[in-house]
C-alpha cells in the first residue's frame, strides 16, 4: 500500500484531464482522481470465510460550457483515453440544460494551506493480523453465556487517496487510512433468537477498540435482548442510546442541506435564525478535527473548510452549502461540497456532533417513571418535507428510573421540531462515528405497541 503515498501520478492524471477539457472547448473544468487499496477478512465459527484484497482507481471530469455542465468518469484511460473522455464530457455538456448556478468556486475561497489533520496511519496490517483481530472478536462474543451462534466477525484496513485539480489553478490532495473490527452475536434458539453487534472504525489502528471488548459487547447485547415483550401504546419520554442518538443529528443535517432547502423539500426551510432547540444545545460540523472520520482540509470544490456551528445555543444558524446552492440561496458557501467521481458537487456534512450536556445517562433515565430506552432503530420512516418521524425501535422499558425488560416490535413516532425542542443531552459524548451525539432524552413520543 505504500505506493499510495506518492500521489504525483494521480495529480498528473487529473491535470491532464483538465487541460484536455480546455482544449476541447470547456470554459471551466475540474477533475477528481481517487485510488484506494484495502484488505478485509471475514471469520465465522473460527474459520476464515473470505479474505479479500481490492484496489480501485477512478477518475472523474466535470466540464462547463457556459452555464451547461456535465460529469463523466472512468477507470480506464489507456491510449488516447484522456482526450476521448474530455470530448465525451464536452458533447454531453453542450446538450445539457442550462444551470445558472453552476460554476467553479470563486478563487478567493480556495484553500491555500493544508493543515495537518493526522489522517494517515502508514503501517497497514497484513492478512494474518486482520485474521487474528476477527478471530479474537468472535471468540470473545461466543464466550458470553447465553450466546449460541456467531453472526460473523470481520476486520479490515485500507488507504485511500484523492486529488482535485481545477482549471483556475487549484491543486489539492488528501490521503487517509481506515481500520475496522466488527462482530455479530446470536443468543437463544429457534424462534426466540436475538442478535446484536458491536464495531469500531478509526483512521489509526491505535485508536481501535479492543477486539475482545467488541466481541464481548456484541454478545452481552444479544443476550440482554432475549425474551422481549410488547407494550401498550402510549406517550412517554424516550431515551436514545448514544449508539443510535446521532441519527437525530443526521436528520437535522439532511433537513439543513442547502439542496433540500433550495428545492423547498425541507421542513426547516423557513427556520434559519430561529430557535429550534433548547438554549443549551450546540451542534457542530467540524471538518478540521484531527483523526476525524470525515476530516478534510478542503471540500470537493477546493474551498477551504472550516468549523460551522449548525446550531448555536439552540438557534439554527446556517445551512450546509456548496457553491451552487449558495448562489441559488444568495448566501456564501460553507465549504461543505462533496463529490463522487461521477457526479457534480453537492453539499453534505463532515464530522457532526451534538455537544454534551451536564447529566449522566443514568440521570436521564433515572428521572423517568415510565418510558422507553431505545438501543436499536429500523426503517426509514422520516419525512424531511413535513418533519414527521416514525421508526421501528427496540430497547428496554423504563420503570421507576430503571431499564427493566427488553422491548421489540414497537414504533416510536412524533414530529422532529417537537423532538428537537424537548431534547436533552447527556454528558457521555464520544467520537466513535462520523456523526456523534451523547445519550439523548426526548419528551412525549408515541410508542405504538399493542
Description:
This protein is of the alpha+beta class and 450 residues long. The protein has two domains: 2-221, PmbA/TldD fold; 228-450, no CATH class. 21% of the residues lie in helices and 36% in strands. The chain has helices spanning 8-24, 81-94, 127-142, 211-224, 246-255, 258-262, 323-328, 361-366, 416-422, and strands spanning 28-44, 47-65, 68-74, 147-166, 171-187, 194-202, 234-240, 283-285, 308-312, 315-316, 337-338, 346-347, 352-354, 370-378, 388-399, 402-415, 424-425, 435-436, 440-448. The protein has a six-stranded antiparallel β-sheet. The protein has a five-stranded mixed barrel with strand order 7-14-15-16-19. β5 and β6 form a beta hairpin. The mean pLDDT is 95.
Termini separation: 55 Å
Order of helices and strands: HEEEHHEEEHEHHEEEHEEEHEEEHEEE
Helical segment count: 9
Considering DSSP H and I runs of 4 or more, what fraction of the residues is helical?
10-25%
Would you tell me the structural class of the helices and strands? alpha+beta
Uncertain segments of ≥5 residues (pLDDT<50)?
none
Give the CA-based shape.
globular
Determine the strand fraction and express it as a percent band.
35-45%
Q: How can the largest sheet be summarized?
A: 6 strands, antiparallel
The count of strands amounts to 19
Query: Strand order within the widest sheet?
Result: 3-2-1-4-5-6
Mean pLDDT: 95
Radius of gyration: 24 Å
Number of domains: 2
Amino acid at each position: 500500500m505504500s505506493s499510495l503515498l506518492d500521489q504525483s501520478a494521480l495529480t498528473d492524471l487529473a491535470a491532464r484531464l483538465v487541460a484536455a477539457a480546455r482544449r476541447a472547448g470547456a470554459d471551466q473544468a475540474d477533475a477528481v482522481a481517487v485510488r484506494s487499496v484495502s484488505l478485509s477478512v471475514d471469520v465465522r465459527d473460527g474459520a476464515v470465510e473470505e479474505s479479500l484484497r481490492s484496489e480501485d482507481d477512478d477518475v472523474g471530469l466535470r466540464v462547463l460550457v457556459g452555464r451547461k455542465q456535465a460529469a463523466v468518469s472512468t477507470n480506464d484511460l489507456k491510449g488516447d483515453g484522456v482526450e476521448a473522455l474530455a470530448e465525451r464530457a464536452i458533447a454531453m455538456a453542450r446538450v445539457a440544460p442550462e444551470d445558472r448556478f453552476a460554476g467553479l468556486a470563486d478563487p478567493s475561497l480556495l484553500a491555500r494551506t493544508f493543515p495537518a489533520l493526522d489522517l494517515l496511519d502508514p503501517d497497514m496490517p497484513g492478512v494474518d493480523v486482520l485474521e487474528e483481530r476477527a478471530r479474537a472478536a468472535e471468540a470473545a462474543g461466543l464466550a458470553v453465556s447465553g450466546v449460541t451462534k456467531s453472526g460473523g466477525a470481520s476486520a479490515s484496513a485500507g488507504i485511500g487517496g484523492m486529488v482535485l485539480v481545477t482549471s483556475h489553478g487549484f491543486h489539492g490532495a488528501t490521503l487517509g487510512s481506515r481500520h475496522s473490527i466488527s462482530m455479530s452475536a446470536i443468543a437463544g434458539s429457534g424462534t426466540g433468537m436475538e442478535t446484536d453487534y458491536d464495531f469500531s472504525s478509526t483512521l489509526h489502528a491505535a485508536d481501535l477498540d479492543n477486539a475482545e471488548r467488541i466481541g464481548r459487547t456484541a454478545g452481552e447485547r444479544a443476550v440482554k435482548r432475549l425474551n422481549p415483550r410488547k407494550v401498550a401504546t402510549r406517550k412517554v419520554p424516550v431515551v436514545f442510546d448514544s449508539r443510535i442518538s446521532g441519527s437525530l443529528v443526521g436528520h437535522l443535517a439532511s433537513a439543513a442541506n442547502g439542496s433540500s432547502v433550495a428545492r423547498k423539500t425541507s421542513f426547516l426551510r423557513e427556520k434559519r435564525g430561529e430557535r429550534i432547540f433548547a438554549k443549551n444545545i450546540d451542534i457542530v460540523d467540524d471538518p478540521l478535527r484531527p483523526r476525524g472520520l470525515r476530516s478534510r482540509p478542503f471540500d470537493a470544490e477546493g474551498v477551504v473548510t472550516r468549523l460551522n456551528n449548525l446550531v448555536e445555543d439552540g438557534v439554527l444558524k446556517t445551512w450546509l452549502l456548496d457553491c451552487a446552492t449558495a448562489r441559488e440561496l444568495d448566501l456564501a458557501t460553507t465549504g461543505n461540497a462533496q463529490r463522487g467521481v461521477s457526479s457534480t458537487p453537492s453539499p453534505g456534512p463532515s464530522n457532526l456532533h451534538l455537544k454534551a450536556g451536564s447529566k449522566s445517562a443514568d440521570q436521564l433515565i433515572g428521572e423517568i417513571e415510565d418510558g422507553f430506552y431505545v438501543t436499536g432503530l429500523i426503517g426509514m420512516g422520516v419525512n424531511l418535507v413535513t418533519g414527521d418521524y416514525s421508526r421501528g425501535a427496540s430497547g428496554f422499558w423504563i420503570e421507576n428510573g430503571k431499564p427493566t425488560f427488553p422491548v421489540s416490535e414497537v414504533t416510536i413516532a412524533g414530529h422532529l421540531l417537537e423532538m428537537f425542542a424537548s431534547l436533552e443531552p447527556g454528558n457521555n459524548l464520544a467520537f466513535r462515528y462520523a456523526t456523534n451525539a451523547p445519550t439523548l432524552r426526548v419528551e412525549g413520543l408515541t410508542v405504538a405497541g399493542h
